[in-house]
Amino acid sequence: MTDTRDTDYLRLADKALCGEELTYEESSGLLDAGAGDLLPLLQAAFKIRRTYWGTEVRVHILNNVQNGLCSEDCSYCPQSGGSQAPIAEYPMKSEGEVLAEADRAWRAGAFRYCMVFSGKAPDLARTRRIAGYVEKIKAKYPLEVCVSAGIFGEEHLALLKDSGCDRINHNLNTSERNYPLICTTHTYRDRLNTLLAAGKAGLEVCSGLIAGLGETRDELIELALTFRRLDVKSIPVNFLLPIEGNKAAAAGLDPQYCLKILCLFRFLNPRAEIRVAAGRELNLRSLEVMSLYPANSLFLDGYLNVKGSPGPRTLEMIRDAGFTIASEFRLEDILDGGKKAPPLGRESLKTGRDLRPAL
Ligand code: SF4
Question: Which CATH fold topology does 56-327 show?
């Protein structure tokens, strides 16, 4: 027998698949789903995900091409001037270093290679250098390339478009109301204008959020709708990673709420590449694998300055859940060259002391 709520979520999925926008009440209902409604909600989100993306997962690997040394004061970021987090700071990596890392990303099964540069807004000379890196990567590897380097103007974006760059990333991160509370050195509008200009330059736009920065539920819905109106092709849904030394404090997210946020973004942006991004391990905890039902993409090997779970563990999670990756390489070959796992050795067996701790 099917529960009424099950058919409600499936009806909303059908509505989303017909291109209709969910109402405020319907969107809000997704975030309010009770624990017992989680599976039907995920099933409905998966119906949308499967229609556009099948069971494929796009694996993204980030490269901090320039790290730290940033003038901005984003409260969540260990690269910001105000952060005390002890990160490794360095200026822009050489072309050779970036190309070697692109090679590694390609062999690790990456679909997209995301080059991230700290800083507010690159000047034209710096943008030319970035465009040169993109050209070289595109000539050598069948990788999609995304550049994240802050605020860009029209001239800068034209250079990147000519270089073969596929995508520009610039996250809105939070709502317009909340923005001054997380950053005072640039505005939500600055970020929005870059996204609008990138779209005009013919570049695909990637823009996401960081849940857990004090935004309200209504603001999450507002953000999801903003991405829908901007026709954002790729939405990284980050969950705050509270880092010692940063201004942004622990987020109070729980695993089920994180899954509901992913579902909300899937329902309101049905065709978008929804990425379960930074903080998936910490915030989704034991429910991490379930994020693959609303999301069709993830980061491998951590997030800028924070380590994630080891690459093979993430790939195993994808394989074990019956999903595949978008790569020239087979998941099995990347993982273990097709070999079976070895039998458990002595070190895996419980000892007498483990078995009889009261003795
Ligand atoms: S998010 Fe970007 S602009 Fe903000 S502090 Fe970090 S590197 Fe700088």
Answer: TIM Barrel (3.20.20)
